[in-house]
Write a sequence for this structure.
């Protein structure tokens, strides 16, 4: 009877320990699942934060690039305008120089024309031109041609 009682106590102890072990195992599994959930949430929030940071950096970089591009474009347009302005000034200078040349040429031509009218006419009564008309002489020395080269 004592042995049976002892055996029963051992079985009860074994069952109690078994239940206790199962409960501890369930608690451990539950804690593990909660910990894994928390870890996943933490990782997810960290990834989201990193993604948001990358997006923000990307946007800032793009804004900087746009600002730089606008500055470059503005500078390029200013250079282009300056270049056109210089070309117009050069063209005006060329036009003014050309106008001056024309005016000087015209003045010199008018002076020459005035002087040419006032100059005495050369005597046309030289050899072969009596009274200003050609006599039709075949004087090759007059034309600067030698006897050998005339034909």
């Amino acid at each position: 009877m004592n042995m049976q009682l002892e055996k029963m106590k051992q079985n009860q102890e074994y069952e109690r320990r078994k239940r206790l072990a199962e409960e501890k195992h369930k608690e451990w599994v539950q804690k593990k699942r909660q910990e894994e959930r928390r870890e996943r949430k933490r990782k997810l929030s960290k990834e989201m934060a990193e993604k948001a940071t990358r997006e923000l950096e990307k946007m800032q970089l793009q804004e900087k690039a746009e600002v730089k591009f606008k500055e470059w474009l503005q500078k390029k347009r200013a250079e282009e305008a300056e270049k056109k302005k210089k070309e117009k000034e050069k063209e005006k200078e060329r036009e003014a120089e050309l106008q001056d040349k024309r005016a000087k040429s015209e003045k010199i031509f008018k002076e020459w024309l005035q002087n040419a009218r006032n100059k005495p006419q050369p005597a046309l009564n030289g050899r072969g031109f009596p009274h200003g008309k050609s006599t039709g002489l075949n004087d090759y020395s007059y034309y600067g041609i030698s006897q050998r080269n005339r034909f």
Remarks:
- The mean pLDDT is 86.
- The chain has two helices and no strands.
